Amino acid sequence: VEKTDPNDAFICADFARVRTGKNSKLVPFKANQNIALQRLTRERMHLSQQLTREKNYTLNNVYLKISGLAIATGKDKPFSDNFSAIAEAILTEFNDPFDLADLSLNDLVGYLKAASKNKGVEDYEKMADLIKKAINNSYKMDKISYDCLTSAITASINVIECLEKQIKYLDKAIEKEMKGLYSTEYTILQSLTGIGPVTAAGMLAEIGDISYFDDDGALAKYAGLYWKRNDSGDFNSEDKLKPKSCNTYLKYYINLATQNSVHFGFSFTSEFYWRKYRETKTHKQRRALVLTSRKLLRLIFVLLRDKKMYVPVSVQET
Q: What pTM, to 2 d.p., does this model score?
């Protein structure tokens, strides 16, 4: 298609050269680098979701094989991670878990030490007792079922290990890409409690240059953190329609950062979250999360716009 408007050519040339004049405030557009970073962060999110699904699916088979282990809670739980080295050894090396329970305490302790390589366990005897208790409280199945379940669990664990390996590989690639693209912004976001390297990289990959957005409202609309009106006459519903057009990846990372910040007690978000949680009787958690995410997004916009690290109020006062 031919272009005959001379103004278009002038604008394009001025944009490319970033000269003084009408477009003196423009900066080079790093489209290719930003798209490359998006491919990395979105692939990592994809693999993380796959990893979660695979672990949940595996836990179904773990329940069938050793139901007492799957439902154990609190002090009765042998280990906090059902996918630790010891847990994986128990689930894959013994077809019949009751053979493991029949071992003497000394033999079982020796097996646990070998499986963990004498690392990460404070009290092997206590763990051995809890494992025996969990197995003895489980439903017993026939040999054929145990053989099939062991094969299925082993296959799933191999997939989990592969996914974890690929996620670590992507983490290194993302860190390398961030150093040459948004190094300052990358550091700024990590000054906020609850935002780590992965979350910061994911946000910046979707936001790009913060100057693209006029204010935090525009950024919130891009992330889907706004609410359409749902009222009629004097009635104003608390249930707002969720916007269908938004950047779902950015929304995911903002919500993830909010959940982490509340979990780790970040005063800027946690106090506000629990106040909103107590204000309503319906949709407590979802409402509090969305409102707190909107509040956190406003802070993120200001920090990126002003290129300033976050400083807690207590530090500012001192």
A: 0.77
